[in-house]
Amino acid sequence: MQGHPLLLRLVADLLQEEYPEAPHLEQLQALGLADLGQLLTNPLVVGVHRKEEAGMVLVLDASYQRLSPLQKEILQAVAVLRGAFSEQAAQVCTQGGADAGEIRQALRGLTRRSFLQRVTQPVGYRFQAVVQEYVRLQINNLAKRHGQAIDYYRSIALPSSGLEGN
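Structure (tokenized):
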């Protein structure tokens, strides 16, 4: 896990979430990540980048499986958006009937688990590229998600000035 801050953060967050009293690296085995250390030090896996990428997928898989259905729904709904997004965007794109408070709580949980990062300009959340790509690979119906994103962008678009065609 050396050298990759996001991988370290994901492992630390996973351990903290699952073992809040006394998180320790030895508990990775109970989380299905016993092979992570071996993978990252295995000479047969060539290249630091490849080791980090494989390790990242293992940790993301383990972390993703522990998310609530609402958290997974939110991630998949906003993974197709470009750039930072607001709580409102998450709620509109999710279309699952969750209220604003539930969305806010789920987003905070996703931030604590390092799936999302808080941003201040614009106010909201964003993905790190590797996490966003991982989540996109989890989406079963990408066309549906793109449609939801289009609906969201249309809902916030400024009214036209009526100058089309002139």
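The first helix runs from residue 5 to 18. Residues 69-156 form a domain with the Arc Repressor Mutant, subunit A fold (CATH 1.10.10.10).
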